[in-house]
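Problem 3 from the worked examples.
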Amino acid sequence: MTLPAAAPATFRPSAAQWGLIFSNFLMWGGFFAVIPLVTVHFVGDLKWAAASVGLVLGVRQLMQQGLTVFGGAWADQIGPKPLILAGCLLRTLGFIWMGFAGSFGELMLASVVAGVGGGLFDAPKSAAIAAVTREADRMRMFSLISVSGNLGMVTGPLIGAAMIGLGFRTAAIAAGCVYLLAALVMALTLPALRPTGANKAKGFEGLAVAARDQRFRRFTLVLIGYFILSTQINVLITLKAIALAGKGATGPLYGLSAGLAVLLQYPLLQLVERHIRTRYALVGAVLLVSTALGLMAFAHTFPLLLACVALYSLGTMIVFPSQQTLTARFAPPELVGSYFGFSAISLGVGGAVGNVIGGALIDAGQRLGFEPLPWLTLFVVGLFTAAGLWWALKSLPKAARP
């Protein structure tokens, strides 16, 4: 079936799309209701070594990002729905198990189970969104998905903080049950989307096709630069906020970032979609993020830093739906899951490098007596990334493949 080229004046999500939006809100809310409390409980209350808890959380992230690559390929074989459901159930088990963990080994195993669950539902969820949404509506749909995720990021920590008074175990069980509810929503609203016949992918051949797709490979590798920048909200930006306004600065910092996304992302994307091609919007958004980071070198007060964070957030709002929309456009219809899975490489590598390089740049700037070094370096990384994206997207088709 050929998708229409023009978007309608209004976008009314279907039941399947509303189910994906609501379940995404539940997933992000459940995650942020319990994960920040892991450090509070095991390090603050039980006096475990911070390094050991950091290792547990790092392994969870590694498991999720590693399996995401393969989760997309599996979705092309059996459809995204069973993987999303299985991933939610494993995440439920992992979070509840965390609440009962009494040793490092138990906490590590629970974290691995939770990470495997995330790896199973991450890329298939994006593939399902692309499958149930017309090409013309995808940017708006991915924008709504991002808004729902940010709502979860805002409400999750508040609910977790309220529940910690009842004990970490209660908070972990409640967060696990949220994923159970997300699985129920998906079971009721998401249709079975299964490839059939000659188009059905075999094994991991979909990943091989994505890896051999020179244009998409360039796109994915160049995006590593952007994820190095986006990670800094948790590293350099947070450290600067604390240096300027103390530990209490993290609340306003994250509240501003997530709050702006909730309020502005969808109308901003509608405006951008109406006037700017998706590929140009992505390049411009990366330039906006890098400019905001460069300006942070000269933000010597907390209000000025927050102004730069607002600019930074506007850029990140545009990047996610643009990147997801373009990934779906690169992919043959029968290999959308594999392409989304392969695209996770940019986030995994960029996120890991960004965490390492952020701290290293701070140390280098202090040794050299040049504090703007981290920010100006990231600005240059952003310029190269934007130029690389312009080059990588030059030959991209304007519309989805039939």
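Problem 4, a separate protein:
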Amino acid sequence: MHTTVTLLADAPAQLLPARQLMAFTLASHIILVPLGVALPLITLVMHHRGLRRNDPVALLLARRWSAVMAVQFAVGVVTGTVLSFEFGLLWPGLMGRWGGVFGIGFGVEAWAFFLEAVLIAIYLYGWRRLKPRTHFLLGLPLPAAALLGAFGILAANAWMNTPQGFTLDAAGKPVDVHIWSAIFTPMFGPQYWHFVVAMLVTAGYVVAGVYAVGWLRGRRDRYHRLGFTVPFTLAAVFTPVQMLLGDSIARSVFRKQPVKFAATEMVWRTDTHVPEYIFGRLHPDGSISGGIKIPQLDSVLAGFRPGTRVTGLTSVPASDRPTATQATLAHWAFDLMAVIGSLLLLLALWYGWCRLRRRRLPRSPWFFRGAACAGVASVVAVECGWITAEVGRQPWIVYQHMRIGEAVTATRSTSLWIMLGLVMAVYVFIFGSLLAVLLKMRTGWRLADARPAAGERHDGPETDTPYGPRAPVPAGDPPSPGGPGAPQDEDGRP
């Protein structure tokens, strides 16, 4: 305990509010990231199905998902831009000293955002204005643009975990920068693919969860069946892949960042035959209370044999490692991520069994309850992954080169606390507005789908397709701005 108090006392007063502000904005932004990265691909899969099978329901779903994609992207640009500014405002020591080494990743992300905005605009414009094949082909670059943005930010973060591509001069400043080496660091590959597949799995479960809720409420038409099946199938297929990638990145951390691995697994002293703790709490004296202890399992997971030597936290001075509290937080985040991943794998296997052996969807309402919760659980797992990655690296902002206290701004802590309060209020408004817009869109779509029952003008989702002619306006309806019988969107615009 004395060591922890000493480390906190030596930290600048503005460090805590700066970290809280960065953590809040990052945790908020990452809620939107899965849809931003993976929804374009999911939408294009549905779009392709609609064109290949001449399926009007699939085309309608793709068009509606593209509208959600645009709204989400607009909000994601705002929250992502805030994060970019915070790097310079909150961590000037980092950007001033190291920005020339790893800043290329932020440049790539900025260009990817711009490119994706243009492509989304073209894709939205193309519905009913371009030939179906041309429209689909113009949408194909969208997933690549989304992956390019992830490439940029993951390259920067991977460099912070395993910095390379430079030499230090006599004053300790980086010189002779090699850009390619700085981008493709040892942790880049494991981090990038683990992140990308996590985004695809999460987005798939989030989208499918919306239709699972509708299924539980009795909406069991083809529209909801297809809206559930396509994204859930993609997520279920990639869930076991994600488990393997998660295991791979854990081994990469074991080799490249042994102290971070020790914090994640709460290993106090370097040893072999190290037990694995599921949850539990690490104390400053190295003791562990609570949790479930499994003998030798940590060594087996790290090196496939009980005799694997695992580096402990005490292998470095206290000032160069996470505190006991930070290690416990990283460990809990990692374990919760692993538990959620295991539950999602069971859900995916249940789904796969029914689809492959029985050629139908599972009939149990418990499956759809699980599917409805899978999206939220996936987002929680993504949050836990970032907590593990960032908290486990403490006290380094650039691993073994710069401590976080050296990078923090000199702005007064009071000002940072006020800024945090303002940002929280603004973000509540932004996310509340996003939710309101999505709910309004959902209500409009439901009204459009219900019009046939009410005897109104549209023929519903089965025939009122994005590329097909609009249903004729019955006699007595007011003329549209484009003239009698002019094609109209679902909101009534020509």
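Solution to problem 4. Strands lie at 167-168, 174-175, 276-278, 281-282, 288-289, 292-294, 396-398, 402-403. The mean pLDDT is 85.
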